[in-house]
Task: structure prediction
Amino acid sequence: MPDFSALHRQRLLNRLSAELYDLLVIGGGITGAGIALDAALRGIRVALIERQDFAAGTSSRSTKLIHGGLRYLKQLEIKLVQEVGSERAIVHRIAPHLVVAEKMLLPLVRNGSYGKAATSFGLWVYDVLAGVRPEDRRVMLSRAETLAQEPLLRPDLVLGGGLYAEYRSDDARLTLELLKTASQRGADCANYLEAQAFIYEDKRVAGVRASDRLSGQSLEIRARQVVSAAGPWVDELRRADGSLSGKRLHLTKGVHLVFPYERLPLRQSAYFDVPGGRMIFAIPRGRTTYVGTTDTDYRGPKEEPPITTEDVDYLLGGVNHLFPGLGLGRRDVESGWAGLRPLIHQEGKSASELSRKDEIFESPAGLISIAGGKLTGYRKMAERVVNRVAARLARQGRRFAPSSTASTPLCGGDFRDAAEVEAWRSQTARQLGPLGGEAGSLVHLYGRQTAQILARAGQEITPESLLLAQLQFCIEEEMAQRATDFFVRRTGMVYFDIARVRAQQARALAHMQQQLGWDAARLSAERQALEQALRHASDYQPASAYAPA
Ligand code: FAD
Result:
């Protein structure tokens, strides 16, 4: 029976310690989630453990684009562009509510990274490699057309532009829907369960000793094969296995800032040059526009990398360079997030030159580790890892089906196409009555599962009852154990509607206390953790205030 509910945690932990799994996955980011789903669909008995909340590592802190990676074309990583480019269409098909087509404007500017002819050719190659349909292929724009497309651009810098196809998404929701779908196919997935040491039998990895970070309970989880998909923590687990040699991780930090839409009212997403030779994105989302990213070497604590005032000033400088009329300042920043790219170290290369290709390591004791890669390429990465696992299990006489993730809709994503998503949004808006304006963001987050939320909201839907209905759904169906799970990763509200979190936090905490049986000490700890998350997203210090770990 699938247990992806915070209300059935103990039952899940009991099963994890009682069973012998075919595969144990360490890490509940997009990579681990993709592996768990691929394995479960093939009939492999799989468990997954995550030491924080699902997606709390890098997979809730990206630019949230399912993209072909135009910059990789510039670095001549043709195979990578081709793979992630064609993956976009697949991920859109299996979750069309969550992976949404979006045109991206690439303004060509004086002294910019891209010239006109090279851009025209590059975007064409990009479309061809990614198999973009002819009607969606790039359009090159004159200077006048570019300025008409985006009147906020600085006229004295703009030489022309390109408009090309990308997809925007929500990284944490994509991770969660993968895990929920895996759980429906029999995977046992638990958050707040940390692998602390490996268990060996006959010198082969045979499981882990794990600790429940919510209760302090310890347990052993046994499996025939163990995969580490621990993102920025991959080298720590390789060290615990005694196999950290050769290639290492190189962590770089990327920061995004969120502005109220009326302060950065772009007509569409844009990817543009900033002084110093890098490029950044600005992406409208609901009542906000977010901007990112920085790319700097990082050595501090991995759980909550800080946003520094230097990061803020860098991004503000970039936006003000191309959109000077807006006069954006620190006071305009509502929220933000910082994430760590788990890249593979290459001698002599700077942060932004490092390859985004994934890498698989196999240790003498049989531990498989995977790191690097992109959100966009998660499905192919998972397929490659599970092929290796299946080949090993085949040596023990087991046979499994090939990967079927390309044709399996994710939870909430059972739509034929974007038109059906739009019809569902209209229907949801009618049901919401005066709150119909919420339908777009609800359908983007939950797809068809909005029906389950509305069923919990009662007859007279108010903003409060809608929020509690979402919360109840996330507790019962999405393993939200903590207030931050709900406000940061299930809904993205700390990033995209921080004022609403401040207004609703007391109500939500009281509801969680009652549903999850928290005592006064737990309630107080949860309140503090949420306050900390709000501060982290919106209160920035200079880099010198953070001592390196
Ligand atoms: P993570 O998401 O970090 O997951 C690893 C998990 O393992 C963590 O949650 C961690 O808590 C857990 N873990 C670690 N140790 C243990 C343990 N001992 N026990 C249990 N669990 C453990 N890609 C795109 O395709 N599009 C983009 O727009 C994009 N933008 C990006 C922007 C930024 C700023 C960054 C940093 C990355 C971006 N990426 C993008 C890349 C993409 O986000 C990452 O490649 C991807 O999220 C990595 O996922 P992961 O599952 O490997 O790692």
In short: The mean pLDDT is 94. The longest strand covers residues 249-260. The first helix runs from residue 9 to 18.
